[in-house]
């Protein structure tokens, strides 16, 4: 039976849906734990201590790729995780992990001093590099087997351990070291779980890739892409660690985490579920069609999530931390504006990975990562902390979408149809909403407080956004309600039966 036959298509949708439901449930549970841990440590740690970990994130922008060089993604794309090449991948991943860990520690000691707190934190994080690389290879095997339940369990376990250990370490008194300790211990323990689970399925037959000649070339491009991906995610921390003090960097990190925790978890879900799902489709045309649909629905739902978060965040931050982190409010709101646009990038990368376009993926990430560093530096020099936040958000809305536009062009070329027009309309609609917020703030903010301003302005802004959304994206509303009605009817029939 072809992968593109009706029955296979239905099976694919069901498997992907189950995987995404599990990912979403995991995301919700992990999100709750993350918010709870951040709420607790927000009372015990100062911005400077958050800033010290922000410096570590800056180092990870260049060295973090060695713990996840993307070799597992190659095996997932080829649906192969056995044979001599698989064993070679294990050796290469372990070597890259050790090399990256050593290089990061040396860089930290040269920049910040061998006896500094930052260097010790870097050493603690580096200990997990080789383990994490091997665990990601085992994760690829579970992705090929489409064992979404185990993948969701591992993601939840790592999130649970990270947050619980972080709170415990802070309460004991490890201060900023708590971030590094919790991260490393969580990676090691969750990796042991991956070893255990994959040993139980090792007897299943998985295709070998011994005859895959361009292996070395693809691995090089995968590593380059992993470094560039890490830069596109974290290079702003490296730039800001050189241009801002630790207090301002701590506010930046805190605001980023509050506003984008949902985005980070959704990104992990997209990379864990959609890339193997895309790879399992035989036809490039079908992959492209699913890519367009996934982009539209992601943009549709996260737009409403962002609209709601913008109004709720000021009051929520003030209430949760009793005014302790009110300085981070505007940072959170500016960051949340780019959330829907930011999430199109991992979805686009998943599509490019599934069709084996590793070189194009690397080029698009290079544009994204380098432009982020430039925008962040210019913003920080000209406007300090707020300037950096605004410039990073602008970059996400322009150059940050380069991977999306490249993937969109390739998908359109493969389908030989103009299927992206509605997606572009949805994108323009959200850009219009962002512009409306900025213009309204510029001309009507009375200085009485950002929270009261948003409460007064929100009904009109949201009403305009909803009206245009219904008019231009009515097919998404129709399909969503139709799908919900179908599932509800099916469930009621099963109950009656």
Describe the structure.
The protein has 497 residues and is mainly alpha-helical. The chain has one domain (6-496). Helices cover 84% and strands 1% of the residues. It contains 18 helices and 2 strands. A two-stranded parallel sheet has the order 1-2. The longest helix has 40 residues, at 358-397. It starts with 5 loop residues before the first helix and ends with a helix. Residues 1-8 and 448-452 have low confidence and may be disordered. It is found in: Cell membrane. Its main location: membrane. Pfam families: Polysacc_synt_3 (PF13440).
Categorize the overall geometry: globular
Write out the strand line-up for the largest beta sheet, numbering strands in chain order: 1-2
Amino- and carboxy-terminal Cα gap: 31 Å
The total number of structural domains is 1
Largest sheet: 2 strands, parallel
Order of helices and strands: HHHEHHHHHEHHHHHHHHHH
What class, by secondary structure content? mainly alpha
- Helical proportion, percent range: over 70%
Contiguous uncertain segments of 5+ residues: 1-8, 448-452
Mean pLDDT, to the nearest integer, reads 78
**Oligomeric status of the shown chains?**
single chain
Which radius of gyration do the C-alpha atoms yield?
23 Å
Q: How many extended strands? A: 2
Transmembrane segments: 20-41, 53-71, 91-112, 118-138, 150-171, 217-235, 247-266, 297-322, 328-350, 427-444, 450-472
Subcellular location: Cell membrane
Pfam families: Polysacc_synt_3
Main location: membrane
